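User: Show me a protein chain along with its predicted structure.
Assistant: Here is one chain, sequence first, then structure tokens.
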Amino acid sequence: MGFNIMRVFETSLDKERRKVKRLMEKEELKNVKYLMMMMMEKGHLLKNVIDVKGMDKVAADISADPYDEISKLAGTGLGVQKISQKVGVPQGEVELYLKLNKTIH
């Protein structure tokens, strides 16, 4: 009879151990899911920061005022036709602007 009680106790203890193990695995899975979600969110935010910084650099390289760009290009010695093509302003307008600003080369 003592042997049967011991066996029942061991079986019951094994069941409880398996339950605890499953609960721990579930909790670990929840933690892993949470960490993955946080990493994805931070990765997304980081990507947005990188994209914004990249756009700021591009925006800084592109002059908002085509006439500023015309002056800069004329200052490098570029001809009216090339300036017109690069800036997208008609050639006559480039010539007029440069004459009025006396920067024609």
